[in-house]
Design a protein that fits this description.
The structure is a single chain. The protein has 2 domains: 248 residues, Bira Bifunctional Protein, Domain 2 (BirA Bifunctional Protein, domain 2); 90 residues, Anticodon-binding domain (Rossmann fold). Helices cover 38% and strands 20% of the residues. The protein has 430 residues and is of the alpha+beta class. It contains 15 helices and 16 strands. An 8-stranded mixed sheet has the order 1-5-6-11-10-9-7-8, with helices on both faces. A 5-stranded mixed sheet has the order 13-12-14-15-16, with helices on both faces. α1 packs antiparallel against α5 and α5 packs parallel to α9. The structure holds histidyl-adenosine monophosphate.
């Protein structure tokens, strides 16, 4: 047996967040709250009802919904190892889950379209880099059912644009394309393949695979050689069937009616297989970073076991939105209500201090305290540090007389007021 002295001590482990993930610290919460509230208000205004779905879903939902040949499903899913034999994954996106819920809860029997909004973390095992997290947050707006009416495509785009405008981001480019339907897509793909097969040698390795796995994605390859090639590739808008062409034209007309500028992007195809007809992204003009993306998915509800039902939606990346707000130093946060600082001295005052705070709460006065600190000086220092405009001094005498001293921290002027009148008097001073 090894002697206790010789036993190796465990190396100290400094725990960190998993790679590509991060903490959102208290000092950043104000901005996350603002962005989430904006998402909720926009959703509320346009009649989207909140839905919450599990973080974990059956892998097959995304394999079938998002598509087996997509990067998200093939390379980026976080698998959950549980005691059950179920193949579970952490959701990489929110649309498939909304559709599952729509089917599972018989929402096709509700008045159509059903408008859902969600907000929460998504998980993709991507190579971490600026604006790309393995846990990122999305807000999504999905409009399921009703007709495949282009007015809904326009409304979904409008909702995303308005969301950003509320946050003072007014200059995102709306990039738009149509990727047709089951009728016009096969002949277009055939022509696309004909073009690319003749250039196979010049394609990158990934694009060589795309020739069989996912031909549409040949168009949005980021490799320079492939970008140069696609200039002479056939584009989808020239190959849309009449219905798809009419649909796309009508979407553009609605956007024009709304005076929403857009850019046609013939190479926009999106990285998820469920799209048909309109696809779009909202990107920064500088770096062309996508802050939101979406489109129509008229086949997904049926593909996941429901009735043939059209749908359209968008998801907004909150991490990237917040990065942009911070980068541009946008003033989107309303001034917080100033807090008064409560200073308690002595045992009786400390004993009654929690009740005093309740008086302030019912009087809608925000209060900061340092209940654990004893010395008056230490508490005055804390009040200063917090930049409180008013301090409330609560000592033995005041506790006994049910009063409190209200002190103006700037001028040093102070007055004793009864607790019953305290909230009204403070409100006038703030
Ligand atoms: P998506 O384009 O994959 O679409 O993601 C939507 C947004 O989430 C992106 O525009 C981006 O801002 C953000 N995002 C995606 N991946 C990351 C990441 N790794 N790190 C940080 N942000 C990221 C969808 O997910 C579809 N479900 C959108 C949709 C809704 N289509 C129809 N309805």
């Amino acid at each position: 047996m090894p002697s206790p002295q010789k036993k190796k001590t465990e190396p100290k482990k400094d725990f960190q967040t998993p790679r590509g993930m991060r903490d959102i610290l208290p000092r950043m919460q104000y901005i996350w709250e603002k962005v989430r509230k904006t998402a909720k208000d926009i959703g509320g205004y346009y009649n989207f009802s909140r839905i919450e779905t599990p973080i974990v879903e059956y892998a097959e939902l995304f394999e079938r919904g998002v598509g087996k040949g997509t990067d998200i499903v093939e390379k980026e899913m976080f698998t959950v190892h549980s005691k059950s034999k179920d193949r579970l994954v952490m959701r990489p996106e929110g649309t498939a889950a909304c559709v599952r819920a729509y089917n599972e809860h018989g929402m096709s029997h509700l008045s159509q379209p059903v408008k859902l909004y969600y907000e929460g973390p998504m998980f993709r095992h991507e190579r971490p880099q600026a604006g790309r997290w393995r846990q990122h947050y999305q807000v999504g707006y999905e409009l399921l059912g009703g007709e495949s009416d282009p007015i809904y495509d326009a409304q979904i785009i409008l909702v995303a644009v308005r969301f950003f405008e509320e946050l003072k981001i007014n200059d995102l480019e709306v990039r738009l394309n149509s990727i047709g339907c089951k009728t016009c897509r096969p002949p277009y793909i055939k022509e696309l393949l004909q073009f690319y097969r003749s250039k196979k040698k010049e394609l990158c390795v990934d694009c060589k695979n795309r020739l069989t796995a996912n031909p549409l994605r040949l168009l949005d390859c980021k490799q320079e050689a492939c970008i140069a090639l696609r200039v002479s590739a056939p584009i989808f808008v020239d190959h849309l069937c009449k219905d798809c062409n009419d649909h796309f034209k009508a979407v553009l007309e609605y956007l024009e009616e709304l005076h929403l500028p857009y850019v046609l992007d013939h190479y926009l195809v999106r990285g998820l297989d469920y799209y048909s007809h309109t696809v779009f992204e909202l990107v920064t003009q500088e770096g062309k970073l996508s802050l939101a993306g979406g489109g129509r998915y008229n086949y997904l509800i049926e593909l996941l076991g429901g009735k043939k039902t059209p749908a359209v939606g968008v998801a907004i990346g909150l991490d990237r939105t917040i990065d942009l707000i911070l980068e541009r130093k946008l003033k989107v946060i309303p001034r917080q209500r100033p807090k008064v600082f409560l200073i308690c001295v002595g045992e009786l005052a400390k004993k009654r201090s929690l009740t005093l705070i309740e008086h302030l709460r019912t009087g809608r006065i925000d209060v900061q305290e340092s209940l654990g600190k004893i010395s008056l000086n230490a508490q005055l220092k804390s009040a200063d540090k917090h930049g409180a405009p008013i301090a409330l001094l609560f000592g033995q005498k005041e506790a006994f007389e049910e009063s409190v001293i209200v002190r103006d921290m700037k001028t040093g002027a102070q007055e004793t007021v009864p607790i019953a009148k305290m909230a009204d008097i403070i409100r006038k001073k703030l």
